[in-house]
Design the sequence.
């Protein structure tokens, strides 16, 4: 299998990396991440105009990419710069719409970066239910940890029910929709979205009978690959920053990177990152395959590996930097927090290890 990136994909990655390197310092990132909006609208517009969102979708959905490796190179670059703009929501919500067909205008607006979408999947203590109301539904309950919930103008909401899940498209300004933002979530604004008797017509449904599970899986599988690639980019930055610190920081007149104990610890980190990269490449290659079980297994392996390795990289980078690694002004502290947070999105390492075991047994 050929793992080499195409010229177009390399050009996309180079353009995105250069744009973020020149215009997205950690101060800009933090101002957006911890600001009222949870992201920087100007940065979102700039990157959308570069076609970054479009690269996450194929031509049938109005994009120009959409393969597993397209998703990988985009989110690896976003992770390297610790970008908090709502690309994950665009990917997951857009993939759900594309898998089902219909709602073409909404999908086109998402792909163009004109509409901010969020995928609302995790139930809070009051799970979301959808009650039949004539030809439509009445939606009630709460979804938790919905990223960019405060900025989204449309939600793709999954509703678990006997048999096939129901997936609904809900405008953020619909009567009965309210958002409670969390005070701090590493990686951008997030919150709980409550649906208080939201009346929806038949056109709100995404997909038809029997499509719900495939629609949800399309969104989650794309999200797993994106998060794994984002973590890979974040680890690459942390690796380079830590190696630079070990070369520059001196003790007893020599760089601390000369100390054998620290060399051994850093060598372990480098080896684990290489293994994580292999797992993500394998997942990106399997993403476009026809074998659903192989795809799910590769994604579970990647997310498990990223969770385990991300925690190691975060811990070791802080330890090797000493006190400076925990300071707000130093970028590594924010990368370490994001790596820990990624492990908990869409299932942590324990969840995906068990999922991999179950899939392997079923094969």
Sequence:
């Amino acid at each position: 299998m050929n793992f080499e990136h195409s010229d177009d994909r390399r050009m996309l990655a180079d353009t995105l990396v250069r744009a973020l390197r020149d215009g997205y310092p950690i101060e800009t990132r933090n101002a957006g991440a911890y600001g009222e909006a949870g992201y920087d609208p100007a940065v979102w517009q700039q990157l959308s105009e570069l076609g970054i969102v479009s690269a996450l979708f194929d031509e049938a959905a109005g994009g120009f990419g959409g393969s597993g490796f397209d998703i990988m190179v985009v989110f690896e670059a976003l992770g390297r710069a610790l970008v908090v703009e709502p690309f994950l929501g665009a990917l997951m919500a857009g993939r759900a719409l594309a898998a089902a067909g219909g709602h073409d205008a909404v999908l086109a607006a998402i792909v163009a970066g004109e509409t901010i979408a969020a995928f609302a999947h995790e139930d809070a203590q009051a799970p979301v239910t959808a009650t039949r109301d004539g030809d439509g539904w009445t939606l009630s309950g709460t979804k938790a940890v919905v990223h960019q919930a405060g900025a989204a103008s449309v939600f793709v909401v999954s509703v678990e029910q006997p048999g096939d899940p129901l997936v609904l498209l809900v405008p953020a300004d619909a009567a009965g929709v309210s958002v409670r933002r969390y005070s701090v979530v590493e990686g951008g604004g997030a919150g709980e979205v409550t649906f208080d008797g939201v009346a929806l017509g038949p056109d709100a449904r995404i997909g038809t009978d029997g499509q719900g599970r495939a629609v949800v899986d399309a969104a989650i599988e794309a999200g797993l690959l994106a998060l794994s690639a984002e973590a890979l980019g974040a680890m690459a930055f942390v690796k380079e920053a830590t190696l630079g610190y070990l070369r520059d920081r001196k003790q007893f007149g020599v760089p601390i990177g000369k100390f054998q104990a620290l060399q051994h610890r850093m060598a372990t980190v480098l080896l684990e990152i290489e293994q994580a990269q292999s797992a993500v490449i394998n997942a990106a290659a399997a993403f476009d395959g026809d074998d659903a079980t192989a795809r799910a297994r590769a994604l579970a392996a990647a997310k498990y590996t990223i969770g385990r390795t991300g925690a190691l990289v975060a811990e070791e980078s802080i330890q090797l930097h000493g006190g400076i690694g925990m300071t707000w002004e130093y970028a590594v502290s924010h990368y370490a927090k994001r790596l820990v947070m990624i492990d908990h999105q869409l299932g942590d390492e324990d969840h995906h290890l068990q999922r991999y075991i179950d899939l392997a047994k079923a094969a």
Summary: The first strand starts at residue 117 and ends at 120.
